[in-house]
């Protein structure tokens, strides 16, 4: 294949061979600089800074552009688990939720734990066919964290529509490298600390479907003062929720969103299509090298994540050699992102022998 250099230029200069974006992404230099400035500012202006809302508002708008959805349909939060609990609470008593077997716990556990919800799981490949009359919600990840498998999102969406079920899509392992449209699903959640290169504490929820466009929003069960229509009058007593998805905002982790504004700006400058082409080319190059060595990586070509059985024992050796990688479920998981190069893939292959 054509050799690939990292995207992003001087934004990244890791001291390791970093192939662990499926666990957490690297912070761009511009984001780190903005974060340091915010920390310095907090010594004189408090931990909410001089403009508590500016970075959060800009981050919301940037995420909305990446997902091709109006900013008014995006809420800001702190974790996928909190958003899953919110979605669970929006369902009627006795609702059946369908999810893939072994999907990420932050997505499915709050659904399973909610009183009255009946969680049914099936293999990912059978998800669309398993939607049935009475299914209230299909919850699934666009890309599986364990091994990088990409869901047939269109098939699941159409099956859900045919049976009157809502859809809840977790794009934590997809946003930033896989082209997506949030408007195609009812709820779309993204933990932004992986491929979107933001700090932890940065999470987005986008609303598709007809919510807020003729259909009433779900109840804003965790609405605090930042969720009020008039924030200046929302500090005390009962609030009037915002008319937009901001009614579901959690109070902002200010420092996280200061950096997120910069990180999302970088992804936007590069373009998700370019990042997708870069990441998948590197992953496929690595996948081919594994196959030449008699190994069986998964999933099939097309994912930025490559997980391989039979290599778990290599993790310590790779760590000692300065390669950051992860083991999940007996699989050595490599994740290729914009700051990686052909040299990174070749170095990993050489170390694996």
What does this structure look like?
- The chain contains ten helices and twelve strands.
- The protein has 353 residues and is α/β, with parallel strands linked by helices.
- The strands form three sheets. A seven-stranded mixed β-sheet has the order 2-8-7-6-5-3-4, with helices on both faces.
- Strand 5, helix 6 and strand 6 form a beta-alpha-beta unit.
- Helix 2 packs parallel to helix 7 and helix 8 packs parallel to helix 10.
- The radius of gyration is 21 Å and the shape is globular.
Give the SSE map:
Elements: E1 17-18, H1 29-45, H2 54-67, E2 74-77, H3 80-89, E3 96-100, H4 105-113, E4 118-122, H5 127-130, E5 135-141, H6 153-162, E6 166-170, E7 187-191, E8 203-207, H7 254-270, H8 272-292, E9 305-309, H9 314-320, E10 323-324, E11 326-328, E12 331-335, H10 342-352
Helix pairs in contact: 1-7, 2-7, 3-4, 8-10
């Amino acid at each position: 294949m054509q050799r690939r250099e990292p995207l992003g230029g001087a934004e990244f200069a890791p001291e390791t061979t970093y192939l662990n974006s499926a666990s957490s992404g690297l912070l761009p230099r511009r984001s780190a600089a903005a974060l340091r400035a915010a920390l310095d500012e907090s010594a004189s202006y408090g931990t909410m800074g001089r403009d508590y809302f500016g970075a959060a508002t800009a981050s919301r708008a940037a995420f909305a552009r990446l997902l091709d959805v109006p900013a008014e349909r995006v809420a800001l939060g702190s974790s996928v688990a909190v958003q899953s609990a919110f979605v669970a609470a929006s369902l009627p008593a006795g609702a059946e939720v369908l999810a893939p077997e072994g999907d990420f716990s932050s997505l499915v556990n709050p659904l399973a734990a909610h009183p009255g919800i009946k969680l049914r799981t099936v293999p990912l490949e059978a998800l669309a066919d398993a939607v049935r009359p009475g299914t209230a919600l299909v919850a699934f990840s666009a890309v599986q964290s364990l091994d990088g498998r990409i869901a047939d999102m269109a098939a699941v969406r159409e099956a859900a529509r045919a049976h009157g079920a809502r859809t809840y899509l977790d794009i934590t392992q997809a946003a930033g490298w896989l082209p997506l449209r949030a408007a195609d699903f009812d709820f779309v959640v993204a933990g932004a600390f992986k491929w979107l290169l933001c700090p932890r504490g940065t999470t987005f929820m986008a609303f598709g479907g007809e919510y807020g466009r003729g259909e009433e929003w779900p109840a804003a069960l965790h609405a605090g003062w930042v969720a009020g229509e008039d924030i200046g009058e929302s500090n005390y007593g009962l609030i009037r929720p915002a008319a937009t998805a901001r009614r579901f905002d959690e109070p902002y982790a200010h420092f996280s969103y200061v950096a997120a504004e910069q990180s999302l700006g970088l992804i936007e400058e590069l373009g998700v299509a370019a990042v997708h082409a870069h990441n998948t080319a590197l992953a496929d190059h690595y996948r081919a090298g594994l196959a030449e060595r008699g190994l069986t990586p998964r999933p099939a070509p097309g994912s930025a994540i490559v997980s391989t059985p039979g290599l778990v024992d290599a993790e310590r050796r790779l760590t000692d050699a300065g390669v950051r990688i992860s083991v999940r479920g007996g699989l050595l998981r490599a994740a290729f992102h914009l700051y990686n190069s052909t040299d990174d893939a070749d170095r990993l292959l050489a170390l694996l022998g």
